[in-house]
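User: My instructor asked us to take a sequence, write out its structure as tokens, and then describe one feature of it. I'm not sure where to start. Here is the sequence I was given:
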Amino acid sequence: MLNLHELDHARVRWQLGHHLFFGYVQALILACTRLQTALDGSDWPQARREMERATQLLWGVAVTFKLTGGFSQAAYDGYVRPNMFEASDGFSGLWSHDHDYLVKKVLRGLKPYFQNPPPELADAVQTFQQAFAIMYDSHKYVCQKFEGDAPSLLMGEEAQKSAGEMIDTFKRNRLLVLGVPA
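Assistant: Let's start with the prediction itself. The structure tokens for your sequence are:
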């Protein structure tokens, strides 16, 4: 039997984690937009600063995913998951317009630089790619912790892939944009 303190703890972590995530998404949009401007102007010192800033933000997202999932399976099953269904049909971070803009516009706009980084930024790009991969691994950790082999809320019960497998698919696709071969 769950006590109210445990349920409230789960609610706060889940909500706070999502609020932090969307704040990080907005910060990543700003850092990557400034990165694009610096790259377009061949301002390598500024580009390095923005790449390092974006990398630090990705580390923050990775930690936030783990923080967000820091409660029991019972609290997830008994409170968090049922309330996600009520919050929004197909509740998912993918529904955020900011997240969509970051992935489809900002990161794709940087694709040429990630796929063929200037020599002045090759090491910073590699560190960014590593942080990006670890961030996805942290998201997968939370999905697998609570869902195991079950489909994600986004994909529904008819999905052919588990929540963790979907994260792997997203990770592989995003890393291709970032110049990391499959």
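For the description part of your assignment, you could build on this observation: The chain has a mean pLDDT of 89. Try explaining in your own words what that tells you about the chain.
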